[in-house]
Amino acid sequence: MLYLPALMFVIQVTPLIRGTQLESLSYFSATEYPVGAFLEVPIRGKTQNAIVTETKPVSSTKTALKAATFSLRKLPHQPDPVVLPASIRDTATALSKIYPVSSGALLFQLLPPDVRNGSKLYPRVDTRKHEEESSPQLLTARIDERYVAYQSFIRTTFAHKGSIMIVVPSAIDVDYAERELAHGIKDRVVVFSPTQTKKKREEAYTKLADTTAAKLIITTPSHAYLERSDLVAIVIEQSASNNYVIRQRPYLDHRIALKNYAKQTGRSILLGDTVPRTEDEVARRQEEYLTYGEEVKRIAFTAPLSIIKQKDKPNPDVPFKLFSQELITSVERALESRGHIFFYAARRGMAPVVSCIDCCHIFRCPDSNTPYSLIRTQKNGEEKRWFVSSTSGKRVPAADVCPQCGSWRLRERGIGIQSVCDEWKKEIPDADITVLDSETASTPKQAIKIANEFFKKKSGILIGTQIALPFISRGVDVSAIISLDAARTIPTWRADESLFRLLLRLRECSSKEVIVQTRTETDNLLVHATRGALERFYDDEISLREMLQYPPYSTFVLLTWVGTKESVIELGKPIVSALEAFEIEYYNNPNSSPTKTERHGLLRINKEASIDPVIIINKLKTLPPYVKIEINPERIV
Fold first, then answer.
1. Mind spelling out the 3-state secondary structure of 483-499?
2. Nearest-angstrom CA–CA distance, 476 and 330
3. What is the pTM of this model?
4. Per-residue model confidence as pLDDT tens digits over 234-287
5. 3-state SS, residue 125
């Protein structure tokens, strides 16, 4: 039987090891270390850095210790360890009432990557609570106007001897923000970027620790929770970007985390975007958020939006004509004037779907059952074609014949970025084309290199998917959505908002014209985008969401688990039992197969519901670890 003295403590820690599968370990200690303390702990004969996530007296855990089949190791005494500031610990505690995970797991996510992986300890800082207005403020304006507002905000904050943090969604946006905001204050700018070198990162930490003058801190969410005693304001730029949501457990939304952080620290927080999320606009209209500057009803743009309806009707054996004559004329005119052109393609590869003409078989990934995309690669002059699943990542050589009927008549369905490139070369063989997507740029550094090379050219065409959008902030002459119908087929309840944001994004980054090609009738969304009628768009979107009880009028909790067609029902029984008091919709993912069935449970927490959301969150915490739990995910199917 395990014997521990009465004045001992059980210390639970999360190891700070890169790529570790260990979520938590327990030790006993004669010292009561506070939550957030950084300690060195023995793991498999080595000493590793770890962060304390829970401390309990032995007296409260005697039963569990007696039943344990293992013995706890003793922690060596460590005087005066570095401790995370109370503001960050309190933020994690507040978030544990919103996300169904422990405050320790959330605390781990708030740490900078170099602290999480144990290569650096969290800096020692003196902190204090400020008395700024911590209700979020909403800034709705074009990107150029927002940065003018930020410059004014920085000057005002500096005048009151306060530091300010600008949080942006990606490394590309860090470079843009530094370029726009560092004029005249370069010695007071601290930059944290995922792409910076180790030397630059160390210089940034040193600069952050210097409190002789107020600083402007520009960072992605990864370093947004580095404390500084004179930090009084936080700005979330491009607040509608989905890059603020992390892609692994606990699927934390950094916008929610930063708003809680500002509240815990008494700092002001500003959310800026051309088209803020509808949830934020509702909060502003209900006076939960404040309006920064003037209320915006319409936004004026230099570039007009031209909608071209293509009316050609090809037969089944002939693909659609991708480019209208109006588009070709506009692009040729811009190229003659030595302009830069941007083509937006919604899908990567040659086509998002490949099917058999004779038996209608669709080629699918056996792991995810989702349709394969057809991708073309070129290496050492040799062209290869692949079937690639964006869901599972599986990549196999593209088939030449149908596995069902043996037919060689395979047809590519839909428009991929490589098809756009091929078709344009047929129109203008000597065109200077640059392609930017996940195939040509698998890392941010490669994407930056491709974009830099394109903008160094006197003129040319950049064809890109979603990942190219941050780069066009530099400005292009003409931009075009090659197929609006493909851009609309995004399986998300935010589809209209995302498309409206894309259209206005192109308008604010284009100097002469934005062209949209479509084969469907013009609807209200396109009319609002043509006029820059932001208020009218929100009126329609808010009305629809209220009717359907979509966020913010309810909170989506999506549960997901995977098994065979038979086992997935058995795996779901503990979920049904734990949540029997709540109304949940259970359904299979339409792309499921008998060998790999993905099942969902959708819980809607109505804003007007009498049930305390914290009760639901606590119930969710009891679910088995194989259940994936997402709060307000982009997709619920």
1. CHHHHHCCCCCCHHHHH
2. 13
3. 0.89
4. 999 999 999 999 988 889 999 999 999 999 999 999 999 999 999 999 999 999
5. coil
